[in-house]
Amino acid sequence: MEQQIEEYLAYLSVERGLAQNTLDAYGRDLRAYARFLQQHNFTSFRQTEKEAVRAYLEQLHNLGRASSTISRNLAAIKSFYQFLVREDLLATDPTLHLDSPKVAKRLPRVLNLSEVETLLNQPSLEDAHSVRDKAMLEVIYATGIRVSELVSLNVLDINLETGYLRCIGKGSKERIVPLGSVAIKYLELYLQTARPELVKRSSETALFVNHHGRRLTRQGFWKIVKHYAKEADIDENITPHTLRHSFATHLLENGADLRSVQEMLGHADISTTQIYTHVTRNRLKEVYRKSHPRA
Q1: Residue 53 in contact with residue 77, Cβ under 8 Å?
Q2: What positions carry a catalytic annotation?
Q3: Do 191 and 78 fall into the same domain?
Q4: Of 96, 140, 187, 244, which residue is most buried, by most CB within 10 angstroms?
């Protein structure tokens, strides 16, 4: 079972070009499913039937897993079985006609403009680390890129003269995203003063580095955001993704078209971007209720 999972992950990596984080998620889900099968005396994926898959999904439900988690697991299992059938390692796909549970669309937490200002103004700019933090916060809010894309940036991915950055998103897809004037200002400050102080090796290509002079990790930036959110006395549940949500919502609130926002966010399907229109509608209702004399 483990060998077939490894072959599938290799296929996703080489043929589909999926990111390592996605591969890790698929691997975790499929290995958990394989353990379930082994606990129920299945020694091969060839033995499984639709009832076994249903039983696994039911177990996830009984464990209190969210419908989105169950849906993600089923998607991984379905894709895996389709691979086995294509490779002639399996005669029939037991997940055929199995439906995913309905996932309620949760509206993302979004900061208002005042909260964004407060959060982004927290770094003191008194040392190299705070200058780096300020530059990172400004860049992620100015561009809406994912935290994985932010920490993957190299110095050569930034063009301050033209005001654009280049990032590699999901599925190894490249996109060019505009930078705002404020982000450019603090990137220049970081590159001129802070980064030379933090970097230990001249060969280091990473744009944002940690105190060891090596590429900052996603977890490292997550801690940075949490720290400044606490300093700003903002909701402790703020994450780097909150700034991405805020970027998209504020663009739409100020008249940006959905297709442009989709392109900047790197969404493959515009339906993913459309969730932000619900957020802006809710904001409009709130403004209406507060402002209209007959609301």
Answers
A1: yes
A2: 146, 170, 241, 244, 267, 276
A3: no
A4: 140
